[in-house]
Design goal:
mainly alpha, single chain, 8 helices
Length: 232
């Protein structure tokens, strides 16, 4: 296996750190949170492997997304739950197929590329329109989402980021940084409110945020290697 795909010290810090904090949070809380623990661990492994450009991230992504649907629904984060069920989860299978066709034969890592200006402007325009639209829909009495604006931001940004991940665009990590920061705020509110599983979701997204910064660095390297195979 190429060294690019091997886990290093920081990768293990993220995985073991998330695992340890998740265990401690459950033991110090009201009881063992099995679902929260599984989501936290599979979620961080999913993103660590994604940051390495490793196609096996999608296996853990399937488990993580399926359980997160249920947890978000219980916390009345309906847009979050819906987008994970209807978009994120199916896109794990799409991503697997796309990356399988777009892997570097020597390293095994996905061939990343940079975002062009035209696509970037189109994505920003889509976000500017969809975020307030989703927030308005979620705030309607028939839905009564508990955090309509934050839920709308994470929903729209999730759509854009997942699209960029499947297309192996390095700048996706800027979006993941914003998304994970917003998710951290959202689950902090849910933790203060006392929602079930919220504390572990907060821990998970805090580690996700650290991994997103790391992923940006890694994928800039992958993009350079894809454009110039002579790059180290």
């Amino acid at each position: 296996m190429d060294k690019q795909l091997k886990l290093n010290g920081f990768d293990w810090f993220l995985i073991l750190g998330t695992t340890a904090v998740s265990i401690a949070s459950s033991l110090l809380g009201e009881g063992w949170d099995t679902l929260g623990f599984i989501v936290a661990v599979t979620g961080i492994v999913n993103l660590v492997l994604c940051a390495k450009g490793n196609i096996w991230n999608y296996l853990f992504g399937i488990i993580y997304n399926a359980i997160y649907v249920y947890i978000a629904w219980k916390s009345r984060l309906f847009a979050d739950s819906a987008i994970y069920l209807l978009y994120y989860l199916p896109m794990q299978f799409v991503g697997w197929a796309q990356w399988k066709k777009n892997r570097n034969q020597d390293s095994g890592a996905v061939n990343a590329r940079h975002l062009d200006r035209k696509t970037a402007l189109a994505l920003l325009a889509a976000a500017a329109v969809l975020i307030p639209l989703f927030a308005w829909i979620l705030s309607r009495p028939v839905i009564a989402d508990s955090q309509p604006w934050l839920d709308s931001v994470t929903t729209v940004v999730s759509i854009l980021a997942m699209y960029m991940m499947v297309k192996a665009i390095a700048e996706q990590w800027y979006i993941w940084i914003v998304l994970d920061a917003v998710q951290t705020i959202k689950w902090t509110i849910a933790t203060i409110r006392g929602d079930e599983h919220a504390a572990l979701m907060l821990v998970m997204f805090a580690f996700f945020l650290a991994n997103a910064v790391y992923g940006l660095i890694q994928w800039n390297g992958l993009a350079r290697r894809a454009s110039d195979p002579q790059q180290p």
